[in-house]
Design a protein that fits this description.
Elements: H1 2-35, E1 50-60, E2 63-72, E3 85-89, E4 94-100, E5 102-104, E6 128-131, E7 162-171, E8 183-186, E9 192-194, E10 198-200, E11 204-207, E12 212-215, E13 218-226, H2 228-231, E14 237-243, E15 246-250, E16 297-306, E17 310-319, E18 326-327, E19 330-334, E20 341-345, E21 347-351, E22 362-367, E23 374-375, E24 383-391, E25 408-411, E26 414-415, H3 431-454
Parallel strand pairs: 14-16
Antiparallel strand pairs: 1-2, 1-13, 2-7, 3-6, 3-8, 4-7, 5-6, 9-13, 10-13, 11-12, 14-15, 16-17, 17-24, 18-23, 19-22, 19-25, 20-24, 21-22, 25-26
Helix pairs in contact: 1-3
C-alpha cells in the first residue's frame, strides 16, 4: 500500500513538475523575446535597420565625388526631430571641399589651405553632417534631401524614409590623395549603434527613363541597429487596463519609468523649462506630469463592448511630457485577435507579419495625416484615441485569464511597461477562484518537490 501511495505521488508530481518545467521554459522564451529589443534585435521587426551607403561616383588623385544615402528600413521606428547627425572618422588626411543636400556643423581648422584662395567646407578629422532644412536654396539641394534629418518608417511613409547628400572629397597637401573609406560611424540618435562599412556590390542607376544603367565605381555599406537599453535606461511608456465587466482600472505599475519626482510638474502648473531658450538641434529631456508611474507616455486599453460575434476595444494614448509633441507617432500591439480586425476608427492600421508564416497577431497603429498624426504635449488635448471592432474567433476568444488584453505594446518602437498578469481585470466571481487555484498549484509543486527529494 505504501508503494502504491508513493507510485501515485511520483506519477502525479512528475506530471505536475513536467508541466511546470514546460511553463518555466515558455516564460524563459517569452522573457528572452521581450528583452531582445534591448540588445539590438527586435523579433517584431527582425530585418529592421538603418543603412548608410557610400557610392564612389568619380575618383582621381585628390578629388573624389561621393553620394551618401541613409535609408530607414524599419517597419515602425522613425527618426524624429531634431533628426540624424551623421559622423565618422577619416582614416587619412581627407577634407570635404563641397556638399550638396547636407552640411557639416563645423568647418574646423583649414589654415593649411590658406594660400589656395578657397577653403574647404570642412577640415575636421571627425565631421558631423546634418540634413538641410526644408526650403533651402535650390542650388544646394539634391533629390531626397532637406527634411531636417527626419526619416519616416517604412510602414507610415514609404516615400520619405531616405536621405541623400553629395560630397566632393579632397586631401591635405601632404597626403597622397587616395580615397580611403572612413570608419566609426554614428548617426547621432540615442539608441543606435553602427558597424564599420563593408564593401558591397556597386549601386546601379537608371538613366534615359530606364533604358540605360550606370553604376558606381565602388560601394560600401554600414548598418545601424536600435537598442532600447542604449536609448534610455528607464522605459518611456506604460499601459493601464480596464473592462466593462470589472469595476476598477488597473493602473500602470508604480515607478514604471522611474521614481524621481524632483523634476515633475503638478497638473495645472507651468513648467519653468518652457520659459527657457533651448537649442532646436538638441532634444530636450522630458519633463513629465507628476504621476505614480512617471512615464512620458501613458497607453490605456479598455474592453468596451461585447457583441454576439464581435467585441470592441478603445485605445487611448496620452502625452504627459510637457516638453514635446510626438510627430508621426505610432503604436505596435501584440494580441492574437488582431488577425480578425474588422474596423479601426480614426487611426491608420497595418498588420505586421515579418515572418510570413501565417501568424497574424501584431498590428501597427498611427495617426491620420493633418488630423491626429501629432500627439500634442501634456494638457487637455494631449491625447489621441481610437476604437477597434474585432470579430470573435470562437475557438480562442475568451474574457477569462486576461485574454482580452494585449501581450505587448510599443510606442514609437519602445516597449511599454505592462501591469502584472495577476492584476489584469477578471470576470466577476472568477478572480477569487483563480487566485486560490494558483495558490493550490504552488503548494502542490512545493509538496511534489519535497517528496521527490526525500522519497
Amino acid at each position: 500500500m505504501v508503494l502504491s501511495f508513493l507510485f501515485v505521488h511520483r506519477l502525479f508530481c512528475s506530471t505536475t513538475m513536467g508541466a511546470t518545467l514546460n511553463l518555466v521554459y515558455a516564460v524563459t522564451i517569452i522573457l528572452f523575446t521581450i528583452s531582445s529589443t534591448s540588445h539590438g534585435y527586435d523579433p517584431l521587426d527582425p530585418f529592421g535597420k538603418i543603412t548608410i551607403k557610400w557610392d564612389l561616383l568619380l575618383s582621381s588623385p585628390g578629388h573624389h565625388t561621393v553620394q551618401v544615402k541613409l535609408e530607414n528600413m524599419q517597419e515602425y521606428r522613425h527618426i524624429d526631430k531634431p533628426g540624424w547627425k551623421l559622423s565618422w572618422h577619416w582614416e587619412s588626411k581627407q577634407v570635404i571641399w563641397d556638399m550638396r543636400g547636407a552640411e557639416t556643423t563645423e568647418q574646423g581648422n583649414c589654415s593649411a589651405f590658406a594660400s589656395s584662395g578657397t577653403l574647404p567646407h570642412c577640415c575636421l578629422r571627425r565631421p558631423t553632417i546634418v540634413d538641410l532644412l526644408p526650403g533651402s536654396p535650390f542650388n544646394s539641394q539634391v533629390s531626397n534631401c532637406c527634411r531636417g534629418g527626419v526619416l519616416t518608417s517604412m510602414s507610415q511613409d514609404h516615400t520619405n524614409h531616405v536621405s541623400v547628400f553629395h560630397m566632393t572629397i579632397g586631401s591635405f597637401p601632404d597626403d597622397s590623395g587616395e580615397f580611403t573609406m572612413p570608419s566609426n560611424f554614428d548617426i547621432g540618435v540615442p539608441g543606435y549603434s553602427c558597424d564599420n562599412a563593408t564593401s558591397v556590390a556597386p549601386t546601379k542607376y537608371s538613366t534615359d527613363k530606364g533604358r540605360r544603367k550606370t553604376q558606381a565605381l565602388a560601394t560600401w555599406e554600414a548598418v545601424c541597429v536600435y537598442s532600447q537599453f542604449r536609448s534610455s535606461q528607464t522605459p518611456k511608456c506604460c499601459v493601464s487596463l480596464s473592462a466593462f465587466y470589472y469595476r476598477n482600472i488597473v493602473p500602470c505599475p508604480t515607478c514604471s519609468c522611474g521614481c524621481s519626482s524632483s523634476h515633475c510638474v503638478k497638473p495645472g502648473e507651468m513648467p519653468p523649462y518652457l520659459e527657457q531658450k533651448h537649442d532646436p538641434e538638441e532634444e530636450v529631456p522630458p519633463v513629465v506630469e507628476c504621476t505614480k508611474h512617471m512615464c512620458p507616455i501613458h497607453i490605456h486599453w479598455h474592453v468596451k463592448v461585447n457583441y454576439r460575434e464581435y467585441w470592441r476595444v478603445k485605445i487611448t494614448a496620452t502625452n504627459l511630457n510637457t516638453m514635446k509633441n510626438y510627430t508621426d507617432w505610432n503604436l505596435v500591439v501584440l494580441h492574437p485577435n488582431l488577425k480578425s480586425v474588422e474596423q479601426v476608427f480614426s487611426f491608420n492600421y497595418k498588420s505586421l507579419t515579418p515572418y510570413h508564416n501565417g501568424i497574424n497577431d501584431t498590428g501597427m497603429f498611427w495617426g491620420v495625416k493633418f488630423y491626429n498624426d501629432v500627439l500634442l504635449q501634456a494638457g487637455k488635448i494631449g491625447n489621441v484615441q481610437t476604437e477597434l471592432l474585432l470579430k470573435k474567433d470562437m475557438g480562442n476568444f475568451s474574457f477569462r485569464e486576461g485574454w482580452a488584453f494585449p501581450r505587448r505594446i510599443l510606442f514609437n518602437g519602445d516597449e511599454c511597461v505592462m501591469p502584472s498578469p495577476d492584476d489584469y481585470p477578471r470576470l466577476p466571481g472568477y478572480a477569487s477562484s483563480s487566485s486560490s487555484s494558483a495558490a493550490s498549484s504552488f503548494v502542490t509543486i512545493v509538496f511534489c518537490f519535497l517528496l521527490l527529494l526525500f522519497v
